[in-house]
Amino acid sequence: MSQSTESTTESNPFTRPGFIVAAAMVVALVAVGIVIFLLPKGQSSAEPAPASSSTVTASPSASSDGGKSICGLPGSAETTLGTAPQSKWELVGRIATPTDPKTFGPGESDSSGFRTCFAHSPTGALYAAMNIVALGSSGSTDLEQKLADKLLVPGAGRDAAMRQAAADSRTTGSSTPIQVRGFLIKSYTPGEANIDLAFETDKGALGRTTLSMRWMDGDWKVKPADDGTTYMGATQIRDLSGLILWSGV
């Protein structure tokens, strides 16, 4: 089992120790045959909540603290997102990722596929979080270094992430394909957002993790832990209860 775990760690960017790490850590364990449910005591296995067909009703406007997108995307005074946005999806690496360059982002993309500039709104924060996850799954050292440099909040965590990205020469993508299945914006202000994302592996295992986002320099960035980890509280879940269903595949 240790040999299998080591092999998965080598090939799966979500499971290696770097700023790409912990998002699918528990899910990856399932992929190598270690099934451990880390459910809080008393949590039920209720059926997943039905997907909503409603769209976000927020109209573009100046954000409440005056922050402007670096590429001119419209902001919103909304502070909640209670339904799934109607999203267009495209593959980034092997992960279906939302895209709306004129409204929510990414508003900018370079020749390497690096994607930046998201709207100053709850939906913009959600799109930014999902795109960062997808970029991190690509296995590209160049993209990992750009992520650490451009899309992490400066500090000890970003410094650690940049060191880890520079030291990591592997370019193989994830051997355990995952796709987003749902989200929950746990909190949102014009300056900070905490976003839960749920993923499913190709084997049907579900995992949930949190990204802590900060609005700075005209874009959403991830606040990493001091060790460079961008994802917090990764756990395996039984179903999608409590989440808003949202998926591109």
From TrEMBL:
Specify the signal sequence span.
Answer: none
Q: Where does this protein have coiled-coil stretches? A: none
Mind telling me which residue stretches traverse the membrane in this protein?
20-39
| Superkingdom in the source lineage | Bacteria
Q: Which residues form the DUF8175 domain?
A: 53-243
**Region called Disordered, residue ranges:** 45-84
Keyword vocabulary terms for this entry: Membrane, Transmembrane, Transmembrane helix
UniProt feature, compositional bias: Low complexity: 45-64
Q: Which InterPro entries does the entry mention?
A: DUF8175
Q: What is this protein called?
A: DUF8175 domain-containing protein
Instruction: Give the organism, scientific name.
Output: Arthrobacter sedimenti
